[in-house]
Design a protein that fits this description.
There is one protein chain. The chain is 34% helix and 0% strand. The protein has 145 residues and is an all-alpha fold. Helix 6 (61-75) packs parallel to helix 7. The protein has seven helices and no strands. The protein starts with 10 loop residues before the first helix and ends in a 38-residue tail after the last helix. The chain is globular.
Length: 145
């Protein structure tokens, strides 16, 4: 009873790097998402501009679940959805990325078609959510709050 292992192709045979990688234009700042910078309007456009953020984001099951739960609850169409959601992933697991996606959808101004891979259009807020609070612990000033 042996296990037969097929030949796998090398990653460079199956994947094509993005243009900015091939051109050497990928900046180091693009690797680290910052919810604080997005909230303040200071983020690199890859994170701060929803029209660039969503096409560069993979719709994981966890992300789709978070958006469905949150937007269903916020919009009132699914009041039984969880009022509190604890995001538990290891470092680099997508927590900040998921929160940025939720923030963009709450702020509105993006076409339902552009985010249809992430959430059903009926869950998108009809108007931007007026008050959004975001607290990023490590970015808080301990002396001044």
């Amino acid at each position: 009873m042996g296990v037969r292992v097929g030949t796998l192709k090398a990653i460079f045979e199956t994947c094509t790097p993005r243009d900015e990688v091939l051109k050497g234009e990928l900046r180091e700042q693009q690797f680290a998402a910052s919810l604080t910078k997005v909230l303040r309007g200071e983020a690199d456009e890859i994170y701060g501009d929803p029209a660039k953020f969503f096409p560069n984001t993979y719709p994981t099951g966890g992300l789709r679940s978070l958006l469905t739960e949150s937007l269903g609850r916020l919009g009132g169409s699914k009041l039984s959805n969880a009022p509190i959601i604890r995001l538990e992933t290891s470092f680099g697991g997508g927590k900040t990325h998921n929160l940025i996606a939720l923030l963009h959808l709450c702020r509105g101004g993006i076409s339902p078609k552009a985010v249809s891979r992430f959430v059903t259009p009926d869950l998108l807020p009809s108007q931007p959510v007026e008050k959004v609070a975001g607290i990023v612990g490590p970015d808080m000033d301990v002396a001044n709050g």
